[in-house]
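Researcher: I'd like a structural prediction for the single chain below. Treat it as a standalone chain; there are no partners to consider.
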Amino acid sequence: MAKLKVYRTAIGFHDAYVAAPSKKAALEAWGTTKDLFARGAAEIVVDSKLTEAPLAEPGKVIKVLRELPAEEPVTAPARAKKATSGKAAAPEPKKPKPKPKPKPRPNRAALNAAEQALDDLATRQQSELAAIDEKVKQLQRERRDLVAAQEREVAKLDRKRGAAEAKYQAALSRWQA
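Model: Treating it as a single chain, here is the predicted structure.
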């Protein structure tokens, strides 16, 4: 397993720490493809107090509110200056354009309506199936009652047939004698 190092970069009013095996892995954890190390906006952390939390959770970005001493002014990270070859000083960098307003969150109304329609359909289908199940139970009761009535009728007619056969056999015996 590669040895983990702790890296730090500034994100707003926070410092973002991450324990990663390489600078590239740290950049991926921060969600950027720009080389913050080359720009001087990220660095390796060696202070043991600052490395404890990130090393406890490797790969996870730990944000810590940046605290500066009262006498120290807030400054941007130092950038490497390019060497000039006797030319005039480089012009001041242009002010960054203001960020556009974030897009509004998508409307969830259509999704809510579709989910409600599915819930309503499931309720209706359960009700319809319950009604059919009740009809099936009623038909099963009717069938059971019909079968029992038919069996009683068959038994009654079978007794009559048995009595008629006994009478016929007796009459036949008397006739042959």
